[in-house]
Amino acid sequence: MEKLLDKWVNQTNWNENIASALATFCKLENLEISKKTIFENYIGGEKMANFSEVSRFCTEWGIDHIGLNFVKKHLDNQFLPAFVLMDKYHTVLVIKIKNDEVYFFDGVRGLIQESIDSFFERSMGHIVLVEVGNYKKEAYYQKHVKEENERIKKISDHFSVKIIDHFLTSEECDLLKEKGESLYVRSQVSASEGNGSEISSIRTSSSAFLVQKDSFFDDIRERAAQLINLNKERFESIQLTSYTKGQLYDAHSDAFADYDTDALKEGQRTDTVLVYLNDDYEGGGTFFPYLNKIIKAKKGRAVTWKSLDENGKIDPLGTHGGLPVMNGRKYICNLWARNTDQSNWK
Ligand SMILES: O=C(O)CCC(=O)C(=O)O
């Protein structure tokens, strides 16, 4: 098995997506499963790849697998490869452990290496082992999937992401793109110390800030305000974001964390209206890890949700991100509303 995995690691082009990696793995295991099937079942469609999805494709495709409560001793090459549920929202494929370093494949970022201790800290305590020979199967897994499905159902009863097609016309999308084209700079995120913003690998796109006075921008903010029944003055100036191949925005909330005192001086973000300005690219869906949902772009489509819960605290259910673009260039427009008047602040 160790040899097999070495071969797999060396053969796989890590710049390719997880579907390629899984297809390669299956091939080495003499399982003839096409990349297309894997893509459609594992990372395609409207659902996030998660723990229950991994199990489903294992079952359907006859891959022997078990799920069990994850303890550190499982991070041992004899149990690998294994899918491990991480970060509460996504599954990674652990392929190798060497010198206390874990090598795993993340569907978003490709091959990653991390110390065994920090990897273990981050993992959720659930694991799916694939092709583990005589290892004793446990009933734990089924129980987990049931709980996971119930959890998702409960969530969707009280949190909604609304999709509104034709929020902008195709011509309006093109015009917005054109107005931003010369203004792009590398996107930033709030600095971890709470003062200002910084460049980060969690957000690798470019942003354009449309701060100039323009009746077209005003009209769009007005439309967004009507859409979610808020006063137009609560919207920040429009921001465009563009992603080229490989660029992404990891899971995050649009609301500011308590430590982000600089940003909070101008008010807390409460609502997002995100508009897709084009759809002629591959990948790049907007994912909501806790909702198990990926929204696909459609030119002119708006997506809206709230970032705070009924107590004014950041709602983890509003956590979202932009998956990496596989091909082409993605453009979106962000309209963020705060809990204070934004008309004197850009
Ligand atoms: O690009 C996307 O689909 C999501 C963008 C996003 O999460 C953001 O700009 O806050």
Automatic annotation (TrEMBL):
Name recorded for this polypeptide: Fe2OG dioxygenase domain-containing protein
An example Gene Ontology molecular-function term: iron ion binding
Protein source organism: Polaribacter aquimarinus
Cofactors: L-ascorbate
Keyword terms of this UniProt record: Dioxygenase, Iron, Metal-binding, Oxidoreductase, Vitamin C
GO cellular-component term (any): membrane
Organism phylogeny: Bacteria, Pseudomonadati, Bacteroidota, Flavobacteriia, Flavobacteriales
GO process terms (BP): proteolysis
InterPro entries: Oxoglu/Fe-dep_dioxygenase_dom, P4HA-like, Peptidase_C39, Pro_4_hyd_alph, Pro_4_hyd_alph_FE2OG_OXY
Peptidase C39 domain ranges (all copies): 11-130
Domain Fe2OG dioxygenase: 234-339
PROSITE patterns reported for this sequence: FE2OG_OXY, PEPTIDASE_C39
